[in-house]
Amino acid sequence: MNKQGKLIFFCGKMGSGKSTKAISLAKEYNAILLSEDEWLSAIYPEEIKVFADYIKYSSRLKPLLKKHVQNLLNSGISVVMDFPGNTRNQRAWFKEIFSEYDIPHKLYYLEVSDELCLKQIEQRRKTIPSRADFDTEEIFHQVNSYFQTPTEEENFNIQIVKRENI
């Protein structure tokens, strides 16, 4: 039997550094990096204007990727998924991916203050101008109103990463 890859995914508020951590871990694990933002912008380049659009198109993307990710993992390739696991429902999707084949996994929970998240979002608006319409304090509060901290009852292998204000 082939050795399985590891599934790595994230939980953290908007602006907490999930994408930055994903890039770092993909290099560390020599893993495939899959970014939801990249997939959505490639498949639905003009359709995502408001948060409700994101929800709609994100839910269409996930069924397409599930089997693909499982195949990579079962081939011995680790996969870092830069997709949010910020609600129980989002995390349940990751659980579907790894539980069917008992694939090793790790959930990185980035525990970051709202103040630092907002500073990082402001910086991101400057460095990636195409995100300026979505990366606002208003959207930050809207998105994070859905945020649910992972719990022990969810039975994930969790690595908590705490970041202090800079």
UniProtKB/TrEMBL annotation:
Domain of life, per lineage: Bacteria
Official protein name in the record: Cell division protein ZipA
Phylogenetic lineage: Bacteria, Bacillati, Cyanobacteriota, Cyanophyceae, Pleurocapsales
Species this protein is from: Hyella patelloides LEGE 07179
